[in-house]
Design brief:
Bound molecules: adenosine-5'-diphosphate, magnesium ion
Structural class: alpha/beta
Helix content: 55-70%
Distance between the termini: 10 Å
Shape: globular
CATH topology: Rossmann fold
Strand order of the largest sheet: 2-3-1-4-5
CATH superfamily: P-loop containing nucleotide triphosphate hydrolases
Number of strands: 5
Strand content: 5-15%
CATH architecture: 3-Layer(aba) Sandwich
Order of helices and strands: EHEHHEHHEHHEH
């Protein structure tokens, strides 16, 4: 089987980290090879430095600058980590990718959608994911999952997350390798839905 580049995306709290871990374990059980698990931004030294800038509350970044920084971190990760892994036959599971930049910086952040997609495909376009899973969960439900850990959600935060969720679905309509997966229900049920898509992608 050829190595697969698998992406998990969706609003904050939809279950990406939970499902990425489950997918890595499930993939290893079913196919006998453990995928590399990476997360954006980060993963590379350059990515970690860019992540620190993106998260720094003392800085005021425009949506455009954010899009460029995320694209830069992604480009570095693709060259430094993803391409070499695939070349040696190792599959990759990645949390967050183009759908996030499209949803947060374009749809929710107000940038032109076509131009953001062009930036991503032209400057962080290869290797291309075999499958982009968009975990679909009502942002209010995602917030409730997080609030079990004590988070407080403000109305404005939820409104923003709703635009992000809309952006994720809009991305899925535009990317032929994106699949919207229902993220409601228990972890195992969501894992099964994701894995069904992985099997489909593996068959090509
Ligand atoms: N299917 C699920 N049902 C209920 N709670 C879940 C489910 N999946 C994840 N969670 C919980 O929701 C919270 C957010 O999950 P997480 O995987 O961190 O989301 P993300 O990485 O997308 O922000 C965590 O507390 C996690 O344990
Ligand atoms: Mg997470």
């Amino acid at each position: 089987m050829k190595p697969l580049f698998l992406v998990l995306d969706g609003v904050d709290g939809c279950g990406k980290s939970t499902q990425a871990k489950r997918l890595v374990a499930r993939f290893e059980r079913e196919f006998g090879a453990r995928p590399l698990h990476v997360r954006e931004p980060g993963t590379t030294l350059v990515g970690e430095r860019l992540r620190a800038i993106v998260l720094d509350r003392e800085l005021e970044l425009s949506a455009r600058t954010e899009a460029l920084l995320f694209c830069a971190a992604r480009s570095q990760m693709l060259d430094e980590v993803v391409a070499p892994a695939l070349a040696r036959g190792t599959s990759v599971v990645c949390e967050r990718f183009h759908a996030a930049t499209f949803a947060y910086q374009a749809v929710a952040g107000g940038l032109d959608e076509d131009r953001v997609l062009q930036l991503l495909t032209q400057w962080a376009g290869a290797p291309r994911p075999d499958l982009e899973v968009i975990l679909d969960l009502d942002p209010a439900l995602a917030a409730a999952r997080r609030s079990e850990l004590g988070d407080r959600i403000e109305a404005k935060g939820l409104e923003f997350q709703r635009r992000v969720a809309l952006g994720m679905r809009r991305y899925a309509e535009r990317s032929e390798r994106a699949r919207v997966v229902d993220a409601t229900g228990d972890e195992r049920a969501v894992e099964d839905r994701i894995f069904a898509e992985v099997l489909r992608a593996a068959r090509g």
